[in-house]
Design goal:
The chain is of the alpha/beta class and 297 residues long. It is built from 10 helices and 5 strands.
Length: 297
């Protein structure tokens, strides 16, 4: 019996040594998996992958960060279309999602928007918990707080798309348009807000047909986008290295539609302005010379 055991051990040792020689520098793997077990594991992996895919399709997106800017933009556009059509899915707002997000968040996009109660980005884009990192201020004006928030989402949360979104009939923009120079808007802080927006509207001439202030809102949104790139080294460098993208947008209060555009985002004064990867969300058209009337923006 001892001899038989010794002989069996020698055969096993020889087989192991032969395997080690065949593997060379890869090292020795002593894990033994039967054909049946291998088939079972393969089927398990396949099922798990199918489940992940089905979940992603059902939700319309994945919670994982690191999506390409264009993919992120597509998710926002699809969500907004659902919102417009009244087919919102309201996914990822349940207990399971809350539990998953308790430890980590990975939003796929950053939205800088106005504080207006009629324009909640998560609803407008039909997104769930942890999907969109939202920064809101009156007239989406920039201060250290909003800029730092955007930088945090870029550096630590993995978002790769920034959307600066204005909306029709913006009260902050209207205040900047209607408050005469040297007059107060009502308080020191309101005056500071108006003072931040006014420079972006300086070349505009009032048009009676633009009752929704779409022209001024577009001008302010474009100005804020430029200001963000100018004031944030992190945003500017990530744009230059094509790690992220920046797009502007305007929200229609009655239609619910978000229109993505670049308008006049030429980043005046930037030597490498043409290299800035701003997403073309609409068919590219030849650059036209800007006119003074804001109805043409």
């Amino acid at each position: 019996m001892k001899f038989q055991n010794l002989f069996a051990y020698a055969l096993l040792l020889g087989a192991v040594q032969g395997t080690a020689m065949a593997q060379g520098s890869r090292g020795l793997d002593l894990t033994i998996v039967t054909d049946a077990e291998q088939a079972r594991l393969t089927e398990k992996d396949k099922s798990a992958e199918q489940a992940r895919h089905a979940s992603s399709q059902a939700h319309g997106h994945s919670a994982a960060s690191g999506k390409s800017p264009r993919d992120s933009l597509d998710l926002l556009r699809q969500g907004n279309q659902r919102f417009v059509e009244g087919k919102m899915t309201a996914q990822r707002r349940d207990e399971k999602t809350r539990t998953e997000l308790a430890a980590v968040q990975k939003p796929f996009a950053i939205v800088l928007s106005c504080s207006d109660s009629r324009v909640p980005p998560e609803v407008v884009f039909d997104q769930g918990l942890g999907d969109v990192f939202v920064v809101r201020t009156a007239g989406h004006a920039l201060d250290p707080g909003p800029i730092a928030s955007i930088e945090y989402a870029l550096e630590h949360l993995g978002a790769r798309l920034i959307v600066v979104m204005g909306h029709e009939s913006c009260g902050a923009v209207k205040a900047a348009l209607t408050t005469p120079v040297g007059k107060t808007a009502g308080s020191v802080d309101l005056d500071r807000l108006v003072a931040k927006i006014k420079p972006y509207l300086s070349s505009l001439k009032p048009l009676s047909t633009d009752t929704l202030l779409r022209g001024p809102v577009k001008a302010n949104t474009a100005g804020v986008a430029r200001e963000l790139m100018k004031k944030s080294v992190i945003v500017r460098e990530k744009l230059r290295h094509q790690e992220i993208s920046l797009v502007t947008a305007i929200y229609g209060l009655s239609t619910g539609q978000v229109e993505f555009n670049m308008w006049d985002l030429d980043y005046a004064g930037q030597a490498d302005s043409e290299a800035i990867p701003v997403i073309e969300a609409v068919p590219a058209t030849p650059r036209r010379k800007r006119t003074a009337g804001y109805g043409n923006h």
